[in-house]
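To the wet lab folks,

You asked to see what we're planning to order before we commit. Fair enough. Below is the target structure as tokens, and below that is the sequence we designed to fit it. If anything looks off to you, flag it before the synthesis order goes out.
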């Protein structure tokens, strides 16, 4: 049995920030990454940028944008805290200390605008912002002497004694190990990998939510799954797997959504820069009306050299699919993207279980309400990760508690079972939902659980069931939760 002051599960921006903050408070930290490459996390795939600030900006204005994009369902105190503390932390940690190479314009940083933002306040490194931030944080974590990184370490269960989390049971190097600690921070990322069409990497299957559910920690707003309007559509490609994201920054830089006849169709005052839930449904409606398999995102009016410089990764992804975005509109479709809910966490990342914190996409802080404002995710990860790490570093004994491990390590699930789960989630709990479809989805999940509940699919099935249960119990359409069988619509939806 190994011991540390704090175990952080997940090495993205939230986990790295938590580990660094805790270490700087004197804690000995073990950071677990699910995959062998410590930089392979959801953060790496973030294209557009991170919220900073603009000359004509203010915390009040940013908080208002967050709450309006969230269909009026967001937590006002969470939005205010992020808007107040976030930009200074970006400056101190990412810009000044770690020197993340954000793009510049003249004497300052290049500021761009994305959907539902009142002003251009987003900073970026071309269209690979997440990868640059991840690289800088991973380097800092490895240089921090109080942090030990365990790559290729899969968290199987949380250790709990009474009403306190006392560590993590981990599969590492082919062996089950128990890491005893006075605190655990969940920073495991999202759950988009539960859906047939997603922008998320394959490992984003709701692991942290499943760990929390098994020990009875509180969960909130899990059915608010945001579907990004613009994933690259590739004709003839088999469903499933990660679809390349076409960042909202393309629309922020002047890209316009068109139907097959070349007409703009998004019916909203902000047009193609409307909130993501609105744009995704407008695309779905247009596809149903016209029979088109996709929409088209046109930014060909911009100079070709500028597009290749501003969006090198997207340009390359499009070329691999046979599309030159400098001369042709990009075919796009909605795909599962971001979980707005998760493990219930307060302003310090504390959950309902003592000794357990959550930060980043796995956490349900109430910040996003029913729909996430573009480029808020990286900032939320940084703010809540740092706060959780500092809070979890408080002195106290490391107690072994009830450290017995799971009876057995779950075996692998067949590919067919994974495909079935992802199909169920896409068809029954996707972009447009109904009570009948959701109820049928629960029946299908129950059947799948009877056959594969004891395998590695057990955790994802648990999370999928909670998503559908939440959606079935919520008969109002709010933000990214859209019920076609109800007339009740919330403001902003």
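Sequence we intend to order:
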């Amino acid at each position: 049995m190994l011991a540390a002051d704090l175990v952080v599960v997940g090495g993205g921006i939230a986990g790295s920030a938590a580990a660094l903050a805790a270490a700087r408070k004197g804690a000995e930290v073990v950071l677990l990454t699910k995959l062998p490459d410590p930089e392979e996390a959801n953060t790496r795939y973030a294209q557009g940028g991170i919220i900073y600030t603009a000359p004509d900006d203010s915390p009040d204005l940013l908080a208002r944008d967050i709450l309006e994009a969230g269909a009026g369902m967001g937590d006002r105190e969470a939005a205010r805290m992020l808007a107040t503390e976030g930009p200074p932390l970006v400056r101190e940690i990412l810009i000044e200390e770690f020197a993340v190479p954000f793009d510049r314009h003249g004497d300052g940083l290049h500021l761009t605008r994305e959907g539902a933002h009142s002003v251009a306040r987003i900073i970026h490194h071309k269209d690979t912002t997440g990868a640059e931030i991840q690289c800088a944080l991973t380097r800092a974590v490895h240089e921090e002497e109080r942090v030990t990184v365990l790559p290729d370490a899969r968290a199987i269960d949380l250790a709990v004694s009474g009403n306190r989390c006392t560590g993590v049971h981990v599969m590492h190097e082919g062996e089950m190990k128990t890491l005893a600690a006075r605190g655990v921070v969940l920073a495991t990322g999202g759950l988009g990998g539960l859906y047939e069409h997603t922008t998320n990497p394959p490992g984003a299957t709701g692991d942290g939510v499943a760990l929390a559910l098994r020990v009875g920690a509180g969960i909130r707003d899990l059915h608010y799954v945001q579907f990004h309007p613009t994933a690259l559509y590739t004709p003839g490609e088999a469903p499933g797997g990660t679809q390349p994201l076409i960042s909202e920054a393309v629309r922020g830089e002047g890209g316009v959504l068109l139907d097959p006849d070349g007409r703009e169709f998004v019916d909203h005052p902000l047009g193609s820069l409307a909130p993501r839930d609105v744009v995704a449904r407008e695309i779905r409606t247009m596809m149903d009306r016209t029979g088109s398999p996709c929409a088209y995102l046109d930014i060909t009016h911009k100079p070709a050299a500028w597009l290749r410089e501003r969006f090198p990764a997207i340009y390359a992804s499009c070329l691999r699919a046979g599309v030159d975005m400098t001369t042709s509109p990009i075919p796009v479709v909605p795909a599962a993207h971001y979980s707005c809910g998760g493990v219930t966490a307060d302003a310090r990342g504390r959950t309902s279980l003592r000794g357990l914190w959550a930060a980043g996409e796995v956490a349900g802080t109430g910040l996003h309400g029913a729909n996430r404002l573009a480029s808020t995710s990286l900032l939320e990860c940084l703010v809540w990760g740092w706060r959780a790490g500092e809070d979890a570093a408080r002195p106290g004994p490391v107690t072994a508690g009830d450290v017995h491990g799971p009876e057995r390590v779950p075996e692998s699930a067949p590919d067919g079972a994974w495909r079935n789960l992802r199909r169920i989630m896409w068809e029954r709990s996707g972009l447009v939902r109904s009570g009948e479809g959701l109820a049928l989805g629960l029946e299908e999940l129950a059947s799948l659980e009877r056959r594969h509940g004891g395998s590695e699919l057990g955790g994802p099935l648990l999370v999928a069931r909670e998503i559908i249960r939440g959606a079935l119990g919520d008969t109002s359409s709010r933000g990214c939760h859209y019920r076609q069988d109800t007339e009740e619509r919330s403001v902003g939806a």
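Structural context that might help your review: The mean pLDDT is 93. DSSP finds 13 helices and 18 strands in the chain.

Thanks,
Computational group
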